[in-house]
Amino acid sequence: MRPLRVALIQTRTPASQGEALSHTAPLIEQAAGRGAQFILTPEGSNLLQRSKSRFAQTAVAPENDVFVAGVRGLAAAHRVHILIGSALVQRPDGLFANRAMLITPEGEISAAYDKIHMFDVDLPTGETHRESALYTPGDKAVVAQTPFAKVGLSICYDVRFPHLYRALAQAGAEIITVPAAFTVPTGQAHWATLLRARAIETGSFVLAPAQGGTHEDGRATYGRSMAIAPWGEVLAIADHDEPDVLIADLDLDAVAKAREAIPNLTNGREFTGP
pTM for the complete prediction? Predict the structure, then answer.
């Protein structure tokens, strides 16, 4: 048995990095106090701001972001791995990225991933979202090595693109992270189904910490953070949209068992298009 205790932090992130740290730090400390070895925060953990002009005035480079610095300090203080599900940060070229960052127990950033798929949609409810108006998409999938497992990184809308998850699993990821700030209508319709599908088809643990509730900038997010096993079982769910700490105990040996039972990662065949 290869046990791992994880904690999914569900937040309602404010519109500034300092307030976001004040909001999130007690939840991280609670998770560490409950024995979590790997703590994960949602997408947009450092700030959520819908106004493009206000966002441009607020976002800074990761090395200047007080939230990122604070979480690095918490990881070192508690000797745990922390995934900043994503921080919304400025790139060296002056553009912006939606970036996941894995922090080691030494407080170092060991891996980073820029969200590949931009949420550019017009929902039936009338909601319109254009992430590409703010962020430059990434172009590289990332699997991070940790002492407990290889971790595949993804962010929110990525969950609708199964080929990314297959690539992460085929590269050795046993845990795949899906930090998110899902909208309420898409969350109600698709959130749990998509997460379970990604776990089942890759034979991986899927860990999905989420934003929840009505935020300072006026947006509403779905919550319902979830941890899912490689066979598709829901190990833990925050069945609400309030800030919370969700604990799940994983047996990482379940990955090999699931992949041996259903070897679809190796049974795939090339084919021509229709």
Answer: 0.96
